[in-house]
Amino acid sequence: MTTDPEKLNEAIALLAHTQSQKRKSGAKRLRKLADRQAGPAILAALQKELLDPRTWSAQYQMILALGFCEYRPALPFIWELARRETEHTTLYHGLGDAIVRIGHDSASDMTPVFETIDNGRFQLINGALQAMALLRMIPSESEIIELLRIAELPAAVQAVRGYPNDPRGLRQWVAAAAAGWPRELVLEFLNRCLPSTDHQLQLAAEQSLKGRYVKWSPY
After folding, report:
1. Which site in 87, 90, 142, 173 is 20 to 30 Å from 59, CA atoms measured?
2. Hey, what's the torsion of the CAs at 88, 35, 216, 50, to 10 degrees?
3. C-alpha 149: how far from chain center
């Protein structure tokens, strides 16, 4: 599907608006358009936006837009941001998502997912797992076993969403992705997810047990 040039140019123009909410709106539009041609403009806008830590919400949307555009030249900069310290930890979630979208070469290429895992930052990992689930990626058997182990790491329970005792931890997106994975590998994990008090995790587990992908809208 070809992007309407007028819509693309209008969205790109918003990235230079004086109001951060308008710049955020432009990034959202570009995320939805997912046109690689917008990559250079989004990357330039993000680099400028990062000079003001107050506009982290616009930064987040620009990061996501780069991921959806699959703009590969942005990947080194995305990784540079992922290794920085920031008080706005939501950015790590967006960075993880973008890393997988930009870095994967096929539905079975789990390299960027495991690169975020090697980084060790749970918010980054959770973003990567989100992209993995939404892209309906299919890991190898050994990779699935490792992902199930990582999903239930006790340390992740209090780290992912920034407040204690979040019942999801890293499990939701692994449970959501498991809809297309071999049932015999994921059955016990999904059954352990079912008693959770978190509705989203329950839904992911219930539907994956039926082999159904949920149409998530996390952005």
Report:
1. 173
2. 0
3. 19
Query: Given this model, what pLDDT does residue 98 score?
Result: 98
pLDDT-derived band at 159 (thresholds 50, 70, 90) equals: low
pLDDT over 70 (residue 53): yes
Q: Which long-range contacts (CB under 8 A, 24 or more apart) does 129-132 make?
A: 129/96, 129/170, 129/173, 129/174, 129/177, 130/93, 130/96, 130/97, 130/173, 130/218, 131/67, 131/96, 131/97, 131/98, 131/99, 131/100, 131/101, 132/100, 132/173, 132/177
Torsion of CA 83, 30, 111, 154, to 10 degrees: 60
DSSP string, 197-214: S-HHHHHHHHHHHTT---
Residue owning tokens 């019942």 = 167
SS3 state of residue 194: coil
Alpha-carbon radius of gyration of the chain: 17
pTM over 0.90, yes/no: yes
- Res. 163 pLDDT band, cuts 50 70 90: very low
Per-residue confidence (pLDDT) for residue 82, from 0 to 100: 98
